[in-house]
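Figure 2 data, in text form.
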Amino acid sequence: MDAALLLGGVYVAGRMEIEASNPADLVRRIMAGDGSAENELVNRYSRGVFFVLNQNVSDRAAAEDLYQETFHLTLEKIRGGEVREPERFSGFILSIARNLAIEHFRKNTRARERQGDENESRTLAAPEASQLENLLKEERARLVHHVLDALPSERDRTVLRRFYIADDEKEEICADLGISSLHFNQILCRARERYRQAFEELSGKDRK
């Protein structure tokens, strides 16, 4: 399974890929009816969407259905002109995936309540979206910070925190660090791999 960064305790993998073209251009091409852009959308955000759903939906079949629904709904919203900040499209599509996961959680909870099971009747009603996200954050935030702190390279920690957590623009980070765009891609690729290794090591210890 591909590891993804946990941003403030929430898995966000949409920016795991270094885009060949910027998100705003991708949105524009889809709105113009470019079929290849739709394929590029799926290729670019597939892993991130699938990872988010699998972290929040225990039923694999349901996660796959929500995966398809995420891209279907995303394309509808793009064509309908509902993407107001295309430069932040990664957050847009991942928020759709999270919202679908939350709605799936609510539906399952309501279904269990209707069954009249005595044990289920004592459970709390499904939390609001913000409450559910906070629960996910609380469960994962500790591990996130441990993983980042475990990285030996200060530059790795800086690049990962600024690019994924602070959501700083790539060009701004390059300027501050005095590196080229190509060099940044190389640094980020290596930092992600070190993060993945540290994440697997620490999460494995937590499960023991």
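Caption note: Strands lie at 6-7, 10-11.
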